[in-house]
């Protein structure tokens, strides 16, 4: 299997500020990998407010079921994340493993099981042996540190070729607050290993119901607006945790949290871009902008049909401004569209208008746009005001190699 | 671009019986290709009954619009098919080109324009120059022959690596009748060229309304049950034509046409398999059988989600019995499914049951199944009685090469 680092990897990683009240530790638990950390503990000094968004899969993993079940209380003392085994499609054994893990962590952290949240990523269908997790979590607990962000981002990786971190500061009433976040994911589900995971922490105390609304809202235009291969993991999870000394903010319309909202959305956007740029085999980051659809939902569906089309994605890999395939993908989306009203641009070059090729567009200039590693493709449907953006990457032989060049 | 013949190509082609009353000719019209035939005329001595099924694309080609418009009359004197240019996304020019083509053919064949049906396949977005089609169709007309089936199957090819023909004989009241058919298609839409086309002719006279019902019915489990890359062409068209000396059959429930129905479905099934086996880059033919879904429609949706999943398809290319990816695809279909009721088999080997891996299944025996070039994957959802089959092929580097290794 390929271990080349994505050509779209960042050239540097952000310095993560210390957030007093949250500590992290990552250890080698030997779940599947050898010689690397694969178990991560994120612990809060005082219980944090928590919100979550999970996979839409009808066959979710046992940890996703666990988190969903306990989210309504909105309180988290710790998050336990492992890589190497997704604990998905593991039946009753999977349920037991989540219970064991939460129980072990609750003992170590001296809290209720319901305050322990879980995420697992890796092989699907193999039972996760959590029998020794109390020892492992005890070991991790002894190493907790305010500075463990980079290690944590690495410990949760599976086929990722680089760790994914983002941080933003924002001010409220003259006081500085922060959001620190990590993520992993490289296909929507990767070779025998799965999943997009993200953990976002802020030192501004916000009521969990407000967190939940904001997380759900921003997920649509960030994590749910990126696609690598249209495949949906059994385990996708985004958790947002909040704690702090301020009076807990409980009003979503409060002017006070305007800066927080903006920072949260920016962090989620940044992590989403890091995911797409680490798409398996990716050599190009592509933004599909649809305007003029009959509704926002319709625009999103059209953008997703384009972003998921193997023929569009292979054309981009070939640096081919193949707008015929864009038309095809618009057509297959099944949403209102009229051939003779479509306008299609690559970068700022309009190549098709009113159902026809623009006769005199410069092939040379278009070629230059396709050679860049970030490409914008804009489609105006010409029917309404609905618009949406979806980000994706190209489909290369490397994708097939990563996902097909081995046998289990 | 690759020109290797599919490893799944048939080793021989059927002998096509002569159907008195239909004649074919194929000529080099120089539309795009050099040194090969690219214009095909299928002419009926007396007007045939005609039925059609077309792409569901919201941006259909001009010839699809033309056929839809004239299908209600149910009479065809001739079909004009060209390869090399799809006449799709060509705006008003495309409409004019269809009109010109039909007008030219109507003159040559001495009939009304409405009795001329059209199909085009090839580049999208380039205007089709039909100004000289009267000369070309005249030339084709002079070469019409009862024996032109093989040539026709070749003339309509784009990225197909082999021509696709099928024939069946059936008897009614002691008399022998026939169905002859040709098809083309290699991706649901191919590099810069598009489309699945099929033309099916029978010398049993059947009323066009009956033909239409049967064609629509059987398309679901044949042409619409195969998928190469989930991409839908702007031009997909299946036309079914019927003529003969018998009293035209107008009752779909007539016992008389039982043998015809069976033969028609068999021909459509055979052509569908030829399409999937010529899928771009294909090395395996895969049948996804879903049972136990809550409805037939639900079963079809789940089967299609599996068949279209890049991760399932790359695993098959890698000969990996990766049932974790099957679970993922079931989950993403969005249809009722319960992890703990799923059963998954490769060939006759059950690898997962009740939400868990079958502990003692033979990896070696499963490996053998994956090495074959025809693979059956069965999924029982365990909830109801809905079932469906979908056929697909694997996703290989060759697919990416065919579709990405060039620039326009």
What would you note in describing this structure?
2 copies of one chain form a homodimer. In chain A, 31% of the residues lie in helices and 28% in strands. Chain A has 408 residues and is of the alpha+beta class. In chain A, strand 14 and strand 15 form a beta hairpin. The termini of chain A are close together. Chains A and B meet through helix 2, helix 8, helix 9, strand 15 and helix 10 of A and helix 2, helix 8, helix 9, strand 15 and helix 11 of B.
Q: Kindly state the number of beta strands of chain A.
A: 17
Give the structural class of chain A.
alpha+beta
Here the CATH topology of the largest domain in chain A equals: L-amino peptidase D-ALA esterase/amidase
Question: Which pair has the most extensive contact?
Answer: A-B, 81 and 80 residues
Count of helical segments of chain A? 11
Largest sheet of chain A: 8 strands, mixed
Identify the quaternary structure here.
Answer: homodimer
Q: Give the overall silhouette of chain A.
A: globular
Domain count of chain A: 2
Average of the residue pLDDT scores of chain A: 92
- Rg on CA atoms of chain A, Å: 22 Å
What is the CATH top level name of the largest domain in chain A?
Alpha Beta
- Helix content percent band of chain A: 25-40%
CATH superfamily of the largest domain in chain A: L-amino peptidase D-ALA esterase/amidase
Low-confidence stretches of chain A: 189-194
């Amino acid at each position: 299997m390929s271990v080349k680092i994505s050509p779209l990897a960042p050239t540097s990683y952000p310095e993560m500020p210390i957030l007093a009240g949250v500590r992290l530790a990552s250890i080698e638990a030997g779940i599947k990998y050898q010689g690397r950390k694969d178990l991560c503990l994120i612990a809060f000094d005082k219980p944090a407010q928590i919100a979550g968004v999970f996979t839409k899969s009808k066959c979710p993993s046992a940890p996703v079921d666990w988190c969903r079940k306990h989210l309504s209380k909105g309180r988290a003392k710790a998050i336990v994340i492992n890589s190497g085994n997704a604990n998905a499609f593991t039946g009753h054994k999977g349920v037991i493993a989540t219970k064991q893990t939460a129980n072990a962590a609750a003992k170590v952290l001296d809290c209720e099981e319901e305050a322990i949240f879980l995420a697992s990523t890796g092989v699907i269908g193999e039972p996760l042996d959590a029998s020794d997790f109390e020892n492992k979590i005890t070991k991790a607990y002894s190493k907790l540190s305010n500075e463990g962000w980079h290690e944590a981002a690495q410990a949760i990786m599976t086929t990722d070729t680089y760790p994914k971190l983002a941080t933003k500061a924002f001010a409220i009433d003259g006081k500085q607050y922060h959001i620190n976040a990590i993520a992993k994911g490289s296909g929507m589900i990767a070779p025998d290993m799965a999943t997009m995971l993200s953990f976002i922490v802020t030192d501004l105390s916000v009521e969990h119901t407000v967190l939940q609304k904001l997380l759900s809202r921003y997920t649509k235009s960030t994590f749910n607006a990126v696609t690598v291969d249209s495949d949906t993991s059994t385990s996708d999870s985004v958790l947002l945790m909040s704690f702090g000394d301020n009076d807990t903010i409980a009003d979503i319309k409060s002017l006070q949290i305007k800066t927080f909202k903006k920072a949260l959305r920016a962090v989620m956007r940044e992590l989403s871009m890091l995911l797409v740029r680490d798409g398996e085999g990716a050599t190009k980051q592509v933004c599909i902008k649809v305007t003029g659809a009959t509704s926002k939902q319709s625009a999103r569906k059209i953008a997703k049909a384009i972003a998921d089309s193997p023929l569009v994605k292979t054309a981009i890999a070939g640096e081919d401004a193949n707008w015929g395939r864009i038309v095809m993908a618009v057509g297959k989306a099944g949403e209102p569209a009229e051939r003779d009203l479509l306008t299609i641009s690559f970068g700022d070059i309009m190549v098709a208008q009113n159902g026809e090729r623009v006769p005199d567009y410069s092939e040379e200039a278009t070629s230059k746009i396709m050679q860049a590693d970030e490409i914008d493709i804009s489609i105006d449907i010409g029917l309404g005001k609905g618009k949406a953006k979806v980000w994706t990457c190209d489909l290369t032989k490397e994708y097939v190699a990563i996902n097909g060049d081995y046998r289990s």
